[in-house]
Amino acid sequence: MFDLTMQRLAADAGLSRQTIYRHFPSVQDIFRALSDEVISEIYSNLPDLPLSDPNYVAAFVDVALSVFCEDPKVVRVLVLASAIGRATSDWAQVDPEDVLLSALSAMPPANRPVSPDPSVAARILITYFRGALYGWAAGFLSDVEFAKEVRKAGSLTIA
Q1: Is the sign of the CA dihedral 78, 55, 103, 158 positive or negative?
Q2: Taking Cα atoms as reference points, which of 35, 27, 41, 46 lies closest to residue 74?
Q3: Residue 79, Cβ neighbours under 10 Å: how many?
Q4: What is the C-alpha separation between 65 and 60, in angstroms, rounded?
Q5: Taking the CB of residue 51, how many other CB atoms lie within 10 A of it?
Q6: Mean pLDDT for the chain?
C-alpha cells in the first residue's frame, strides 16, 4: 500500500486521476481518510456499558480488536502511515488514552487496572497497547499474538 500512486488508484477504480485528485489532493490524504474511517468505526461502536463498569476496558479492547483485525493487511499499513503522519505533520486523531482515562476515572479506584490513579493507569495501558499495535503493524506479531497482547494490556493489575 505504501507504493500506492494516484495513477494506479485511478486505474484500479476505473476513474480518472483528476477525479481522484478532486477528492484527495495527495496519497497521504487517502491514508488519512482510511485511517480516520477505522478510528471512527471503533468510536462509533464503543461498548454499551457505563464507563464505571469494570468490564468496560475489556469490551473496548474487543471492539478495537474486531476493527483492527477485520482487514489486517490494510489496517497494518494504515497504523504505520498514521504514525508517520502524526510524526511529520498536523495529522491528529482521537487519542484512545482519552477514552481510557474517562472510563478509568468513572471506575471506583479499587477496580482500576494497574494503578488507582486513572491518569497513570490510562498511560500505562495505552503505552502497552501501542507497543503491541506497532509490533503487529510492523509484522512482528500475528493477529492472534496481537489480540493476546492487547487483551493482556487491558487486564494488567496492580503489582
Answers
A1: negative
A2: 35
A3: 20
A4: 9
A5: 17
A6: 83
Alpha helix positions (H), the chain: 6-13, 17-23, 27-43, 56-70, 72-88, 96-106, 118-137, 143-154
The string of pLDDT tens digits covering residues 128-148 is: 888 999 999 999 999 999 999
Name the more confident of 53 and 4.
53
**Type of residue numbered 149:** E
Residue in this structure with the C-alpha cell 508517520, named with its chain if needed: 84
How many whole angstroms separate alpha carbon 62 and alpha carbon 66? 6
The single-letter DSSP state of residue 158 is: -
DSSP label of 110: G
- How long, in residues, is the chain? 159
Cell representation of residue 64: 478495537
Cα separation, 32 vs 60, whole angstroms: 23
Report d(CA 57, CA 66) in Å as an integer: 14
Give the model confidence (pLDDT) of 11-26 as tens digits: 888 888 888 888 888 8
